[in-house]
Amino acid sequence: MTGDAHHLLPSATPVTLIGIDGHPVADSGRTFPSDADLRRALASLITARRLNDQAYALVRQGRLAVYPSSHGQEACQVAAAQVLDDGDWLFPTYRDTVAAVGRGVDPVEALTLLKGDWHCGWDPYEHRVAPHATPLATQLPHAVGVAHAARLRGEPTVVMALCGDGGTSEGDFHEALNFAAVLRAPVVFLIQNNEYAISVPLARQTAAPSLAYKGIGYGIPGERVDGNDVAALLTVLGEAVARARDGEGPQLVEAHTYRMQAHTNADDATRYRTDAEVEAWVERDPITRLTRHLDLPAAEMAAMADEAEQVAAHLRDGLNRDIEPDPARLFADVYATPTPQLREQQAQLADELAREGALG
Amino acid sequence: MTHEKLTMAQALNRALRDAMAEDDTVVVFGEDVGALGGVFRVTDGLTAEFGEDRCFDTPLAESGIVGVAVGMAMNGMRPVVEMQFDAFAYPAFEQIVSHVAKMRNRTRGRVALPMVIRIPYAGGIGGVEHHCDSSESYYAHTPGLHVVAPSTPGDAYTLLRESIASPDPVVFLEPKKLYWAKEEVQLTPVSSSGRAMEGRETEARLTPASSSGRAVEGHETEAHLTPASSSGRAVAGHEAEARLTPVSSIGRAVVRREGTDATLIAYGPSVPVALEAAEVADREGRSLQVVDLRSIVPFDDETVCAAVRSTGRAVVVAEASGFASVSSEIVARVTERCFHSLAAPIRRVSGFDIPYPPPKYEHLHLPGVDRILDAVDDLQWEES
Ligand SMILES: Cc1ncc(C[n+]2csc(CCOP(=O)(O)OP(=O)(O)O)c2C)c(N)n1
Ligand SMILES: [Mg+2]
């Protein structure tokens, strides 16, 4: 054990590779992602934004119960998905629909829960995306467990575990970091610091210089990255994933971003922040920035917009289909084999519905 | 005494304000309770009115919230903490079960914890997972905790005032689907004298439940609030206890509707459903009495058993899963006490023994009027 913690310290300012004006930042000292990677990221970002806005609209039309939008945070989620290999895992929160879609989850499946149909709409094993967690930070120890099991099984898996700034205050966050460090589990913890936990600003959440410092006490290196710069995210997260895969243990990355919309459509953000504060983040928009930087021909941009439009249409169609709840589903999958009591209750419900049907 | 038409959320807000105004050891904290006023606006305006020291947002950690409340209660304060939703109280479970519930016992009565844990609870609002749990059994099963659940704005006000004044910790369950229900509420006058005990005698009138004058003292309640000593130190435990008027809504069930054929026993979110079932039954020629527990712990055996004996038949209605639940406890204890008055076994209508289902399935799960009336039909009527 060494007393020197310097290698664990994050940089004083977040890593940025592309400035707001779209130009590369001079002397970043970091690897710049390839053009192909950036183009892929731009296409994903455009689709992600379209999905966020489509989902928001679907709430207004009553097709979704609620939607926690990641409008403005798409770069974090796109990069988190893009740096993973097929065999890796993603552990998302309720705000990370776009990251799950980035892993290949069908957007309609990704929003099944919020549509009110079932708790998790996708098969977690299919794309190696865990069911998204709503109880804050509770998914993080699971991520450590999956990573540790992979190591024991000799698999080269890395786990990307997502969490919000507010979630870092929960005990599970700290236990997960400590376990990961002690077990040297290949986990990358990505904190999307969007400045708010519902109404509570970061300043009330922590007195630390930055959330990236949360790793130090556990022996985990922390990095800070501009969460609206997808190039910086691809580099920082990509390198963190590579280190974890190489057996260097867990990594902590804090992405500085901003929640451009209310917590969910049910929230009234005017009660706790000013429009001016939100406006100030508009110029830092991740899509504008990357679009400026790549400066692609109009035809290529149009193709990306088309692709996004198709995904949005698919989402609309999927969510506009009405659900006919299957009563038997209520009792399925509570246990591997239903208890006698559940079978009795299922029969009771079937009987009620049959009598109702006979009346109607 | 003032009268106002208030929603349950507003009545709770008034209870907090009045308690904070009367006693400056009352402090409110939790997630988003400050500027936002809580996600259900129950703490709306409290920070503005009383300042950040009296109502404040905490870091996002339920175990921390409850644990810090324990310490504050040990040191002369009366914390009222908010868990944002039922299922988000679980990180605090260790603190609640191992410390909140046991402090008095572990210290041979030396350390009392006059604190309230407010929890918006239960379903019926189309909420997604983790926002609809009926978690009362966990708390009711833990000795040392009082557990209450109002079903009307009037009771919400009175029960919260009494919970804050209580020398024991109270788990205060607020049925989410009733937050917006409105009724005329009689508010306890706020003493102007401030700290003097004499000035704090308060009278809280509950919403009258029946006109027939059934023996339910809980109709009219007098609650004396616990004083804070002038030094601000914890007097909470012992002294306060002696001064609390024994007759209060905590521990008192109330008959919400008179009836002669069978008794529906309900609490919290199930009370309006039971009342609706009684209304429908009435049209079908059957007279159902409805008892609202209000308080799960302490449990009012006297009122509940008197009611059941008067009709000889009973159905317990509760949203929570039935297995090993508050509803099974009610059936057990009422059967033990009223066996010879019963014409039929007591029936239960509860949620199924499944995780709370998604919104589109909720209506199949929750006890509804038809399911209640089916159970009533099953109470062996042939001889009558
Ligand atoms: C254990 C727990 N407590 C409370 C909540 C209620 N809640 C949902 S989201 C949220 C804020 C989370 O903030 P943050 O972690 O910053 O994530 P963001 O919503 O900003 O993405 C709260 C308090 C919850 N989901 N889980
Ligand atoms: Mg946040």
What are the segments of chain A in which pLDDT stays under 50 over at least 5 consecutive residues? none
> CATH homologous superfamily name of the largest domain in chain A?
Thiamin diphosphate (ThDP)-binding fold, Pyr/PP domains
Helix content of chain B: 25-40%
Number of discrete domains of chain A: 2
The proportion of strand residues of chain B reads: 15-25%
Q: Write down the overall mean pLDDT of chain B.
A: 87
Rounded radius of gyration of chain A (Å) = 22 Å
Oligomer state equals: heterodimer
Task: Explain what this protein looks like in three dimensions.
Chain A: It catalyses: N(6)-[(R)-lipoyl]-L-lysyl-[protein] + 3-methyl-2-oxobutanoate + H(+) = N(6)-[(R)-S(8)-2-methylpropanoyldihydrolipoyl]-L-lysyl-[protein] + CO2. Chain A: InterPro entries: Alpha-ketoacid_DH_E1_comp, DH_E1, THDP-binding. Chain A: Its EC number is 1.2.4.4. Chain A: Its cofactor is thiamine diphosphate. Chain A: Belongs to the BCKDHA family. The complex is a heterodimer of chains A (360) and B (384). By secondary structure, chain A is an alpha/beta fold. Chain A folds into 2 domains: 323 residues, Rossmann fold; 32 residues. Chain A contains 14 helices and 7 strands. A 5-stranded parallel sheet of chain A has the order 1-2-3-7-6, with helices on both faces. The radius of gyration of chain A is 22 Å and the shape is globular. In chain A, 48% of the residues are buried. By secondary structure, chain B is of the alpha/beta class. Chain B has 13 helices and 16 strands. In chain B, the strands form 4 sheets. A 7-stranded mixed sheet of chain B has the order 3-2-4-5-7-6-14, with helices on both faces. In chain B, strands 11-13-12-15-16 form a 5-stranded mixed sheet, sandwiched between helices. Chain B has a two-stranded antiparallel sheet with strand order 1-8. In chain B, helix 7 links the parallel strand 6 and strand 7. The longest helix of chain B has 15 residues. Chain B is globular. Chain B starts with a strand and ends in a 7-residue tail after the last helix. Chains A and B meet through helix 14 of A and helix 3 and helix 13 of B. The complex binds thiamine diphosphate and magnesium ion. Thiamine diphosphate sits at the interface of chains A and B.
